[in-house]
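User: Can you recover a sequence for this backbone? Please restate the input before giving your answer.

Assistant: Of course. Working from this structure:
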């Protein structure tokens, strides 16, 4: 009897042990065991594309060019439909101010309407900020006057004579012809009130570089504008100033001017005759006052933040480089240029 009871006890212990092992070791059956990881736990830290079933959260901080700002805002709006838990903030104080914040590590992305300057790149390097430059679209700089001005076309010399560093104090269009050795058109004796971006703007830098710099260099002058004009960082305020007078003069990004009322877009002669500003002439480079638009992405931010990398991934998609760019009035990159930009991003 004692041996029988001992045998039953041993069988009971073995049965209990087997049940415990089965309960602890399950996970491949239909008993509700959790897998090791779940889709949607976060994005890829290396900035890879998010899967169709994945979601991310976090913040993306962007500052810089007021010209590129509408593209980044539109990309953020479209991106929100895909990743509603990512908060994207976009500010447009100007390209120069944006790079200052970017190189201080205050932002993840810097919008720019010109390439980064050597001095700005040096500031980033000194602060340990590594970045990738991504071209996102094309913009022309519209040169404008009041809608009732009889002038239809201005040359680079005309613009230099009215706006350049030797024109301080000039109050009439015709004063441009008073600069010794500068051949200008027959400009009217009409009041000249000038409105344009200030020095903090990438549009200012591009305008100076494209239109004024070569002439200033030939004449031994600093490549800049006259200081006495109505400068403003807000393109809409500039357009309002140009609207205020029939013989006003100014310049802003083409996207801001294309549908503005009360202004006249002037043709510009950069040496090959008068050319109008429109999407076709800007894309082809025929219009002489055109420039590329960029975003600069902090590599460390993209590597550490799934939100940043997912946003830029989306920016590089057809929704970003195609739909967003065209919807806000800029000119799309060619397919070849889009491929080059995407390669820069994927190869960072």
């Amino acid at each position: 009897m004692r041996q029988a009871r001992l045998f039953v006890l041993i069988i009971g212990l073995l049965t209990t042990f087997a049940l415990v092992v089965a309960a602890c070791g399950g996970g491949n059956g239909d008993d509700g065991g959790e897998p090791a990881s779940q889709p949607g736990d976060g994005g890829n830290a290396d900035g890879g594309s998010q899967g169709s079933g994945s979601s991310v959260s976090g913040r993306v901080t962007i500052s810089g060019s007021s010209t590129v700002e509408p593209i980044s805002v539109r990309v953020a709006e479209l991106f929100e439909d895909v990743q509603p838990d990512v908060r994207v903030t976009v500010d447009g104080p100007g390209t120069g101010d944006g790079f200052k914040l970017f190189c201080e590590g205050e932002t993840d992305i810097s919008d720019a309407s010109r390439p980064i300057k050597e001095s700005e790149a040096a500031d980033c390097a000194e602060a340990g900020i590594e970045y990738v430059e991504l071209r996102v679209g094309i913009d022309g700089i519209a040169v404008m006057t009041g809608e009732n001005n009889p002038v239809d076309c201005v040359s680079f010399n005309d613009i230099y004579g009215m706006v350049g560093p030797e024109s301080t104090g000039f109050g009439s269009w015709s004063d441009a012809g008073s600069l010794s050795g500068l051949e200008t058109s027959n400009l009217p004796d009409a009041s000249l009130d000038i409105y344009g971006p200030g020095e903090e703007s990438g549009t200012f830098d591009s305008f100076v570089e494209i239109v004024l710099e070569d002439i200033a260099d030939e004449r031994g002058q600093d490549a800049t504008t006259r200081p006495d004009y109505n400068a403003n960082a807000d393109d809409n305020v500039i357009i309002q100033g140009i609207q205020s007078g029939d013989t006003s003069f100014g310049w802003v990004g083409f996207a801001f001017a294309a549908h503005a009322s009360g202004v006249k877009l002037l043709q510009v002669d950069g040496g090959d005759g008068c050319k109008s500003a429109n999407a076709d002439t800007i894309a082809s480079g025929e219009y002489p006052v055109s420039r590329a638009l960029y975003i600069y992405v902090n590599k460390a931010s993209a590597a550490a933040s799934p939100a940043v990398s997912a946003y830029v991934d989306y920016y590089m998609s057809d929704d970003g480089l195609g739909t967003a760019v065209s919807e806000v009035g800029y000119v799309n990159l060619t397919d070849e240029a889009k491929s080059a930009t995407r390669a820069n991003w994927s190869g960072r």
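That completes the design. The two ends are 79 Å apart (CA to CA).
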